[in-house]
Design brief:
It is a single chain. The chain is mainly α. 44% of the residues lie in helices and 2% in strands. The protein has 7 helices and 2 strands. A two-stranded antiparallel ribbon has the order 1-2. Strand 1 and strand 2 (14-15) form a beta hairpin. The N and C termini lie far apart (88 Å).
Length: 181
């Protein structure tokens, strides 16, 4: 039998990616792993149980440093006008303990900025405050973005071609006018 195939009728090969997935026994509640306090390593090694992120302990809130003494400085350093929302976040612990919904209720809009603040917050937390905070500029779409690129470039080439033809017609018309004089 070839590598990468399963059993099939004679003369027919089925690639591994098309074979049916193995079925797991459905979970019944109360489930022994879910109902008892177990260490995260047990959950990680269980094949049919997904990791329960809210139940895992959060990393500690990093200490305030001289480079980043408060929330306003943190938001100013990460950029993208995040510092305009500093009054809505009352303290350092609130910044590190709040969820996206908490920020939304506080009025931190748009959602892209909330995600950006949370991304930097978690990056800062994982590095325990030993990371350089800097603004990451948003990318700029070129030619209408990845999906529309071919169409936009084709339209632009057509317009350039038409402009070139008009220019040649003007030059040809002005050359004929000069010859008649």
């Amino acid at each position: 039998m070839s590598i990468g195939v399963t059993r099939a009728p004679p003369g027919m090969l089925i690639p591994l990616r098309l074979r049916p997935l193995p079925l797991f026994r459905p979970l019944t509640f109360p489930h022994p792993i879910l109902s008892s306090p177990t260490p995260a390593s047990t959950l990680r090694n269980s094949p049919s149980i997904r990791r329960l992120h809210p139940s895992l302990p959060r990393p500690p809130v990093p200490a305030i440093t001289s480079a980043v003494p408060d929330v306003k400085t943190f938001l100013t350093l990460i950029g993208r006008s995040a510092s305009t929302h500093a009054p809505k976040i009352s303290s350092w612990t609130v910044l590190f303990d709040s969820t996206s919904d908490d920020f939304k209720r506080a009025g931190v809009e748009p959602a892209r900025l909330r995600r950006y603040i949370i991304h930097w917050r978690e990056k800062y937390r994982r590095a325990n405050g030993k990371i350089e905070l800097k603004e990451v500029k948003r990318g700029v779409k070129k030619d209408g973005g990845e999906r529309r690129r071919k169409m936009i470039r084709a339209i632009r080439r057509t317009q350039e071609y038409r402009e070139k033809k008009r220019e040649e017609e003007r030059e040809a018309g002005s050359a004929e006018g000069e010859q008649q004089e």
